[in-house]
Amino acid sequence: MSLYNIEAVAPRAKALGSSTLYEASGLPTAVDPAIRPIWRGAFIAAPAYPLECSPGDNLALHLALERAPKGSVLVVSTGNFIAGYWGEVLTVAAQAAGVVGLVIDGGVRDIQAMEKLGFPVFARGVSVKGTIKATAPSVGEPIPFNGAQVVAGDLLVADDDGIVIIPQAEVERTLVDGMARFTKETRMMDALREGRTTVELMGLKRQEVAQ
């Protein structure tokens, strides 16, 4: 059973963004920044479904589309192997299965088709090379993922700034702390517009310039 309601959480997460949520979490939730959206403006806030592919082999992805709960985002470890693990056919299959996005440390292809379909994908690279379908190291089991740990049901938030994966038990606290941070920063920006400085507002030490 999920520890949070994604319909209530997703708009709050989108309003705050990945950077604020990372700072608010106080945890190692950030994913390698080299994994980027393949089209600008892509956004995901959804429960993670982790899986692991062998290098150059995408069988685990096909199995995951049969097993992942509706509303999930697939989080795919490939050992950072760049190949076309995912393309238009799997995108159509994912949308039919109710999967809402993909985050993969490998490669994808058919970029224009995915953007046209409005399917958010974050990947390490793009590659025309296809894959075989022979082995599936893990599907749905916890995995380390490029700087974060991911367990099925953890909240993944991905936007133009980056990707964070927040443990289920920390989601509500992170959102509350994130809103407090957002409010503080909003007040600071209002003060800056009134002529105050970041040195003053943040209590930074002034360095004397030698004459």
UniProtKB/TrEMBL annotation:
**One Pfam family matching this protein:** RraA-like
Q: Which residues bind substrate?
A: 87-90, 109
Q: Does the keyword Magnesium apply?
A: yes
Q: Which domain of life is it from?
A: Bacteria
InterPro entries, sorted: RraA/RraA-like, RraA/RraA-like_sf
Alphabetically list the UniProt keywords: Lyase, Magnesium, Metal-binding
Q: Which GO terms describe its molecular function?
A: lyase activity; metal ion binding
Q: Does the keyword Magnesium apply?
A: yes
Q: Which cofactor does it need?
A: Mg(2+)
Locate the residues binding Mg(2+): 110
| PANTHER family xrefs | 4-HYDROXY-4-METHYL-2-OXOGLUTARATE ALDOLASE 3-RELATED (PTHR33254), BLR3842 PROTEIN (PTHR33254:SF16)
What is this protein called in UniProt?
4-hydroxy-4-methyl-2-oxoglutarate aldolase
